[in-house]
Design a protein that fits this description.
Helix content is about 40%, strand content about 10%. It contains ten helices and seven strands.
Amino acid sequence: MFSNEQLLVILKKMWTLRKFEEKAAELFTRGIIRGSLHTGVGQEAVAMGVNLALNEDDFIQTTHRGHCHVIGKGADIKLVMAELCGRYVGYNKGKGGSMHVANLDMGILGANGIVGGGNPVAVGAAFSAQYRGTKQVAVSFFGDGASNQGTFHESINLAGGWKLPIIFVNENNQYAISTPFVTVSQTRNIADRGIGYGIEGVIADGMDLFDVYEKMNKAVEKARNGGGPTLLECKTYRFVPHSKADREVYRTKEEVNEWKKKCPIKKIENILIENGTLNENGAREIENDVKQKILDAVDFALKAEGPPAEELFKDVYYEEAK
């Protein structure tokens, strides 16, 4: 599926996702990142596996937990970090912050702080691609909590009826903040809901990059060739609290530790060590190199200025180009 050289690149990228999230959490604790922050530590295989199956001009719409998705799509970590820190050089002039990172030139339609709010936007992008005949596909990331929102059902129904080129990627990390999915739905597999809308539902091991990529790749090829949407449920787990306001009283340390044994990054690392491509020292060198790149991104962000006062009322209302 991937050569050893490709796996090394993937390993570095996955470590980048992990270390970016860990550093962002630290900066939030220090009061440098304001507002709120939701990290995807543990869920890197989904972000990486999905994006590996996409072309540069494909679209993604993400969620409040979207840093890994946008960096996985190719966003510059310095500019993402600057955005989180409220700096003018950030992707959205420091005015979007953690939950609203977007870059239309890269097909990143934006993160969304509204649970389930991204699905209709991604459907619109998929309709645009179909209408223009571009062979682009759209991806909508959403969590297990969002699967019970009306926007999900309306979006997937419309996409199925029009056979739009979209993949609905459900990151089922088992909890909607503190609510276990099994307590709010008799449907144990979110993918099974595709049946009701006449589209294919597929389950992937969200802790396994290879499984996510293989199933996503098939879904993308089907969508590109007019086969319509797929609902891809990636069963995954966040190793960290929902946010810094989360005391985690709803799950045990034993449960978290069991899931940590499935760490998607260590899985790739172990494969490369076992086949002789990498040794333990080399693995730690990669990790340390990534750490330094993250520190460089933080340094870049903290040296930058915030938005000037005259930007306060810009980008609020549509302004016709002159």
